[in-house]
Write a structure and sequence with these properties.
The complex is a heterodimer of chains A (about 325) and B (about 325). With about 325 residues, chain A is an alpha/beta fold. Chain A has two domains: about 180 residues, Rossmann fold (3-Layer(aba) Sandwich); about 130 residues, Rossmann fold. Chain A contains twelve helices and 14 strands. In chain A, helix 3 packs parallel to helix 4. Chain B is an alpha/beta fold. The longest helix of chain B has 26 residues. In chain B, the strands form two sheets. A five-stranded parallel beta sheet of chain B has the order 1-2-3-7-6, sandwiched between helices. Chain B has a two-stranded antiparallel sheet with strand order 4-5. Chain B contains eleven helices and seven strands. The chains are: A alpha/beta (about 325), B alpha/beta (about 325). At the A-B interface, helix 3, helix 4 and helix 5 of A face helix 5 and helix 6 of B. The complex binds thiamine diphosphate and magnesium ion (MG). Thiamine diphosphate binds next to strand 4 of chain B.
C-alpha cells in the first residue's frame, strides 16, 4: 500500500473528489467554497466540478443547512460547509429540529444524506467566537452522527464514509491540524464510523480522546516514557456512533482512564465516557477515572490567557501522574 | 386583484366538481377531527385549516404528483390536497402504526414523500429553506418539477424568510412561496408585528414576482398558480403569493379566541371559500342541490371509513420508539 504525505485539508479534498466522481448527485454548498473555503479544504473543486456542484452560498447559515436538507430528501447528497463551527449555531434550529429528526418523525420514510463540515478548536488567538469545540452540542442530539478525525489519513477515510452515509453527519475538522501533514493512503478508501483506533498501545493508563487532542496525548505519552509510564492512546475518531467495546477493553486492561478533549470539561463529552465506565464497571472493578478539558470560560484571545483555559500536553501529563499517584515535574512550553 | 381569477368555464365541470369535492373533504376531515379531539379521543393538539381550503386545493391541484410541497403546523389540507390517503393521515392523528409516519409525527408532522409532500412542520418558518433546497435539487437534476412552500403570515418575520427568498431569487429557482395569510399568528394580529403589510411588495427585494390575492376565491388561487408555475417551470424564477384568508376555528381546536370578536368571525365566515365556489357552480348550472348532497354524503362516508381504519389499526410496538433514529440501529450503550 503506497501513501503520500499531505495535509489534513488536502486529504479531505481527495475524499471530496472521489465522492463527486463516484456519484453525480453529490454537491457541496457553503460560503466562499469556490475560492477554496476559509481553510483551503475546497480548493480546486470548482475547476473540476463546476459551479453547479460547488455552490457559493450567501452568509445565510440557516439556509445552508435547510437547503442541504431539502436537496438531500429529494435525491442529492450534500456536503454543507459551515466554515467555523460557531457559525453552525445560526443553523441549530435546522440541524436539531429538522435534519436530525426527519427520518424519525416521518416514520423512516426518508434518508438525510448530508455532511455538515465545520472547523473547530484552537488555532492560536482566534478569540472567543472562533476557537470553540462544540461537539457535545451535537452528540447530545439523537439522529446526528459526529466525527472528529485527528490526522490526514482518517480525515480522508472518514469523510468518504460520511458522504456515503444516509444520515446527517457532523464532520469536525480541527483548525490547528488542517494544515498539518501526515501519511495518507493513495487511492480510494473509506473508514467506517464507530471504529476507534489505538493510536499508541500502552499498559499503564488509557487516554481516550479525539481530534487534535490525540496529538497532545501522543506527545504526553512520549514525555512519560522517561518515567516508565506506558500510555495507551485511543483515538475515538467518531463520537456517534461510539466504539464502546474499544473503550471498555482498554479501560479493563489498564485500569486507569483519562478522557481528554479541548472542549469544556463541564458537561463535556468526556463526562459521558467516564459516566459510562463508572456505571458499567464502577465499584467492584477498581478503575480510576479522570477527565481533562477546558475550564469553563470562553476561549480568550491573549496567548497567555488562552493557555490558561485550554488544556495541552502539560495538563495531560499532570492528570496521568495524578491518576497513577506519581509526582511528575510540570512540563512547560507545550 | 381580480384579473388573476380564471373564468369558471376554463376548468370545465368535472374538474370544478373535483375541486369542490376536495374542499368539502378537507372541511369534513377538519370538522370530524375537531370533534374527536374535543372528545378526548385524539392525543396532542390540532390546528384546523377550516376556512382556508381554497388555498390548499387551488395550489395543489395546479401541481403534478412529482412536484413538491413543504407544509406547516396547519397542514392537514395541504397533505390531503396533495394526495395523501385519508387512512394514512387519520391513522397518524390517532398515533397508529399505519399512520403516514408510523405514529411518530402526529398532526404537525404529517409527511408523504411518495407524493412529494415533504412534511408539515412544527417550526414556524421551518419550510422555507427546505423548499429552496428541494428547488435547487430540481434545478440541478434538470427535472421540470416545482416546489411550493406554504407558510403563514406569522412566519413572515422569521430570518429564514430573508435567507431563503434571497437565494431563490438569485438562482431563479423553481419555487413558489405561498403565504396563507389568515391575519393572525396564534393570538396576535399581523398589524402588531409586521412593519410592511404589503407582503407581495417584498418580492421585489428578492428579484422575484409578487402578487396579492383573495385566497378564498378558488379561481383566483388557480389563476395565480398557473402563472407562477409556468414561470417556475420555464426557469424564470420564483413567485411570492400573498393569499388572504381567515381561519374559522381558533389557533388550535379548543382555543378560547379571546383575541378576536365573534362579530369579526361571523363576518369572515360570510366569505367561506366553499360556499362562494358552490354559488358559482349553482349559478353556472353545473351543480344542483341533489348533486351537492350526494357529494357531501360520499365525502362523509369516505371520512367515516378512514376513521374506522384508523381506529381498527394497531398502535406501534413499544420497541418502535427507538427505531429509525438512524438508518441503522445505533443505540447508546447506556
Ligand atoms: C419557531 C417557532 N416559534 C413559535 C412557534 C409557536 N407557534 C406555533 S403556530 C404559531 C403562529 C403561526 O402563525 P402563522 O404562521 O400565521 O400560521 P397560522 O397558525 O396562522 O396558520 C406560533 C407562534 C413555533 N411553532 N415555532
Ligand atoms: Mg396566520
Amino acid at each position: 500500500m503506497t501513501s503520500k504525505r499531505m495535509t489534513f485539508g488536502q486529504a479531505t479534498l481527495d475524499a471530496m473528489e472521489f465522492a463527486m466522481l463516484e456519484d453525480q448527485n453529490v454537491i457541496a454548498i457553503g460560503e466562499d467554497i469556490s475560492w477554496g473555503g476559509n481553510f483551503g479544504q475546497f480548493r480546486g473543486l470548482v475547476e473540476k466540478f463546476g459551479s453547479t456542484r460547488i455552490i457559493d452560498m450567501p452568509i445565510s447559515e440557516a439556509l445552508i443547512v435547510s437547503a442541504a436538507l431539502g436537496a438531500a430528501v429529494t435525491g442529492l447528497k450534500v456536503v454543507a460547509s459551515m466554515s467555523f463551527v460557531e457559525f453552525t449555531l445560526g443553523a441549530m434550529d435546522e440541524i436539531v429540529n429538522q435534519a436530525s429528526k426527519f427520518r424519525y418523525m416521518f416514520g423512516g420514510q426518508v434518508s438525510v444524506p448530508i455532511v455538515i463540515r465545520a472547523s473547530d478548536g484552537i488555532r492560536g488567538s482566534s478569540g472567543p467566537q472562533h476557537s470553540s469545540s462544540l461537539e457535545n452540542l451535537f452528540c447530545h442530539i439523537p439522529g446526528l452522527k459526529v466525527v472528529a478525525p485527528s490526522n490526514a489519513n482518517d480525515a480522508k477515510g472518514l469523510l468518504r464514509t460520511a458522504i456515503r452515509d444516509p444520515d446527517p453527519v457532523i464532520y469536525l475538522e480541527h483548525k490547528r491540524i488542517t494544515g498539518v501533514r501526515s501519511d495518507v493512503e493513495d487511492g480510494d478508501f473509506s473508514i467506517p464510523l464507530g471504529v476507534a483506533r489505538i493510536a499508541r498501545q500502552g499498559s499503564s493508563v488509557s487516554v481516550i480522546t479525539y481530534s487534535d487532542m490525540v496529538n497532545n496525548a501522543l506527545a504526553a505519552a512520549q514525555e512519560l516514557e522517561k518515567y516508565d509510564i506506558d500510555v495507551e492512546v485511543i483515538d475515538l475518531r467518531s463520537l456517534v456512533p461510539l466504539d464502546y467495546a474499544c473503550i471498555e477493553e482498554s479501560a479493563l486492561r489498564t485500569r486507569n482512564v483519562v478522557v481528554a478533549h479541548e472542549s469544556w470539561k463541564f458537561c463535556g463529552f468526556g463526562s459521558e465516557i467516564v459516566a459510562h465506565l463508572a456505571e458499567k464497571f464502577g465499584g467492584n472493578l477498581n478503575i480510576r477515572l479522570a477527565r481533562v478539558g477546558a475550564k469553563s470560560a470562553p476561549i480568550p484571545f491573549s496567548p497567555i490567557l488562552e493557555s490558561q483555559v485550554v488544556p495541552g500536553v502539560a495538563e495531560l501529563v499532570q492528570s496521568i501522574g495524578k491518576i497513577l499517584g506519581i509526582e511528575l515535574p510540570t512540563i512547560r512550553g507545550v | 386583484m381580480t384579473q388573476l381569477a380564471i373564468p369558471l368555464e376554463d376548468i370545465g365541470r368535472e374538474y370544478a366538481l373535483a375541486h369542490l369535492r376536495m374542499m368539502v373533504k378537507i372541511r369534513a376531515f377538519e370538522t370530524r377531527v375537531g370533534v374527536l379531539f374535543l372528545d378526548g379521543q385524539l392525543p396532542g393538539f390540532i390546528h384546523s385549516c377550516a376556512g382556508q381550503e381554497a388555498i390548499a386545493v387551488g395550489v395543489c391541484s395546479s401541481l403534478l404528483l412529482t412536484d413538491f410541497v413543504t407544509s406547516t403546523h396547519r397542514g392537514h389540507g395541504h397533505s390531503i390536497a396533495k394526495g395523501i390517503s385519508l387512512n394514512s393521515i387519520f391513522a397518524e392523528l390517532f398515533g397508529k402504526v399505519t399512520g403516514a409516519c408510523r405514529g411518530r409525527g402526529g398532526s404537525m408532522h404529517v409527511a408523504d414523500f411518495s407524493i412529494g409532500m415533504l412534511g408539515a412542520n412544527g417550526i414556524v418558518g421551518g419550510g422555507y429553506g427546505i423548499a429552496v433546497g428541494a428547488a435547487l435539487s430540481c434545478k440541478y437534476r434538470k427535472t421540470s418539477d416545482v416546489v411550493v412552500c406554504f407558510f403563514g403570515d406569522g412566519a413572515l418575520n422569521k430570518g429564514t424568510f430573508h435567507e431563503s427568498l434571497n437565494f431563490a431569487g438569485l438562482h431563479k429557482l423553481p419555487v413558489i412561496f405561498v403565504c396563507e395569510n389568515n391575519g393572525y399568528a396564534q393570538f396576535t394580529d399581523m398589524r402588531r408585528t409586521t412593519a410592511n403589510e404589503n407582503i407581495a411588495s417584498r418580492a421585489e427585494t428578492y428579484g422575484m414576482h409578487g402578487d396579492t390575492l383573495d385566497g378564498n376565491d378558488l379561481l383566483e388561487v388557480i389563476g395565480a398558480m398557473r402563472i407562477a408555475i409556468v414561470r417556475a417551470r420555464s426557469g424564470l424564477g420564483p413567485t411570492l403569493l400573498d393569499m388572504k384568508s381567515y381561519r374559522f376555528s381558533g389557533h388550535y381546536v379548543g382555543d378560547a379566541e379571546v383575541y378576536r370578536s365573534k362579530s369579526e368571525v361571523d363576518l369572515m365566515k360570510q366569505k367561506d371559500p366553499i360556499e362562494r365556489f358552490k354559488v358559482k357552480l349553482f349559478d353556472s348550472g353545473w351543480l344542483d342541490l341533489a348533486t351537492f348532497d350526494a357529494l357531501q354524503s360520499q365525502v362523509d362516508h369516505e371520512i367515516g371509513l378512514a376513521e374506522e381504519f384508523a381506529r381498527d389499526s394497531e398502535f406501534p410496538l413499544p420497541s418502535d420508539a427507538l427505531r429509525d433514529v438512524f438508518s441503522e440501529d445505533i443505540l447508546h450503550d447506556i
